[in-house]
Amino acid sequence: MPEAMTYPLVSVITPVYNAEEQIDDFLDALQNQQYPREHFEIIVVDNGSTDRTVQKIQSHSDIILCRRTDVQNPYAARNEGLSRARGDILVLLDVNCTPTPHWLQNGIRRLRKTDADLVGGQISFTYSNEETFGEWYDSLLFVDMKDLIDRGQSCAGGNLFFKREVLDTVGPFPENHRSGMDLYWTKKASRAGFKLVYDAHAEVHYPARPFLPLMRKVFRVGTGQPKVWLDNDMHPVKLILLMLYQFVPPGTRELRDKIERRGKDEMRQHLPVLWGIHYLQKVVLSLGWAKGFAKYYLSKS
C-alpha cells in the first residue's frame, strides 16, 4: 500500500447474533490487520443477542457497537451498520469468517489498483477435528466466490468490499428475506454498471458446516433465490421446471470437478457418500425454492 497519508477511511461492518463463542477471536483478528488501525473503523451490529455477545464486544476498545432488533436478519443489521459508516470504502464481513492478517489491505488494494467497484474475497474452509462428510460437501459446493462472480456477476456478502458510490446508487439490502439478498444486491449492482471482481488474496477462513446445519442453510438460502431470479426477468415456468429437475438423480461430473479444483485427494475415495449428500441437497434446495416462489407471489397479492 502507499504511504499512510493516502490510505482511505474504511468501514468494516459485521452483524452478530448470539456469537459469544466467536466474537473475541474475530475482533482480535480484525484489530491485528496490517492495514493501519487509525484508517479503519469496526462497526458491529447486534441483531438481538440473548447471550453475552454484547458484553464481550464492549470489552474491546475502539469498536463501534450498534443495535438493530426490530427485524432479525443479517440484511437489516448490515443496513444499520451501513447507515452509521463514515468510510469511503465499505466492507461487509461475517462474524464466522476469520480474516487473515493481510485480508483488509489486499481487498482495498484490489479496489484502488483496478477499475473494480466491488471485490468479493476468497472464503477458505476449515474443518472440525472430526472432519465429517457434511463438512467436506459444504467446502466443495458452497460459497465459491470466484465461480459466483465469474458465472453470474453476483456473490455472497460475507467477505465483500465496495465503494460508497455503489451503496448510494443501489441502496440498502432488502430486509424481507432471511437469505439470498446478498446475491440479489450484488447482481443489482452489476446490472447498474458497477464492476464486481474476485480477489484470492483478500482471504478469510470459514468453518465448514456438518450435515444437518448444512441442509438447514440450503433450505434457507433456497427460499431467497426466487426473488433474485424473478426480479431479474426469469420466467416463472422456467423456475418451476428447475424445481422439478432437482428431483432427477445427478451425475458425478460436478462433484469430480469440484474435488479437482477445491478438494482433497481422499475425497475421491468417498464419492458415493458425497453423491448421496449432493442429491439430498438438490431436493432440499428445490423445497426451499418452492417456498420462496410461493412467498414471492403471495407478497404481490
UniProtKB/TrEMBL annotation:
Q: Look up the domain of life of the source.
A: Bacteria
Q: Where in the numbering of this chain does the Glycosyltransferase 2-like domain appear?
A: 11-169
> Which GO terms label this protein's molecular function in UniProt?
transferase activity
The keyword Transferase appears for this protein? yes
Q: List keywords of the entry alphabetically.
A: Transferase
The protein's name = Glycosyltransferase involved in cell wall bisynthesis
Q: What is the lineage of its organism?
A: Bacteria, Pseudomonadati, Balneolota, Balneolia, Balneolales
